[in-house]
């Protein structure tokens, strides 16, 4: 939709989104660490392995999103954007599983 109005508009919108998205990512990481510190004493068996998996997909999501912002080709944008989105959804799912 944006490209129909102006071919440069998607990049402008993406840059504006990044101004909010990266601080939000780091706030979510920080609150996740805080929650782990608060809840680790009451952890169920197997919790640490699942938590490590979630940490991995959260990190993968951040790295893939960063690589998406650095991509110069259409396939690079698509691959890194898709990997970031899928790993973010995986992190949400693992968070729900961890919550019980």
What does this structure look like?
With 100 residues, this protein is mainly alpha-helical. The protein has one domain (2-99). It is built from four helices and no strands. It has helices at 2-5, 9-39, 47-70, 74-99. Helix 3 (47-70) packs antiparallel against helix 4. The longest helix has 31 residues, at 9-39. The N and C termini lie far apart (40 Å). 9% of the residues are buried.
Summarize, please.
Helices cover 85% and strands 0% of the residues.
Spans of at least 5 consecutive residues whose pLDDT stays below 50 are none
Instruction: Determine the strand fraction and express it as a percent band.
Output: under 5%
Main sheet characteristics: none
Q: Report the end-to-end length measured between terminal Cα atoms.
A: 40 Å
* Average pLDDT figure: 91
What sort of overall outline do the alpha carbons produce when their principal axes are compared? elongated
**Proportion of helical residues:** over 70%
Q: How many helices in DSSP terms?
A: 4
- Rg over CA atoms, rounded to whole Å, is 17 Å
How many E strands? Answer: 0
Summed up, the domain count is 1
Helix vs. strand class? mainly alpha
Order of helices and strands: HHHH
Keywords: Membrane, Transmembrane, Transmembrane helix
């Amino acid at each position: 939709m944006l490209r129909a109005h102006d071919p440069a508009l998607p990049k402008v919108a993406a840059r504006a989104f990044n101004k909010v998205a990266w601080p939000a990512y780091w706030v979510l990481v920080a609150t996740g660490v805080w929650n782990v510190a608060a809840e680790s004493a009451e952890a169920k068996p197997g919790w640490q392995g699942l938590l490590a998996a979630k940490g991995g997909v959260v990190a993968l999501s951040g790295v893939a999103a960063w690589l998406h912002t650095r991509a110069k080709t259409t396939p690079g944008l698509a691959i890194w954007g898709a990997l970031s989105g899928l790993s973010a959804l995986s992190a949400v799912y693992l968070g729900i599983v961890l919550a019980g």
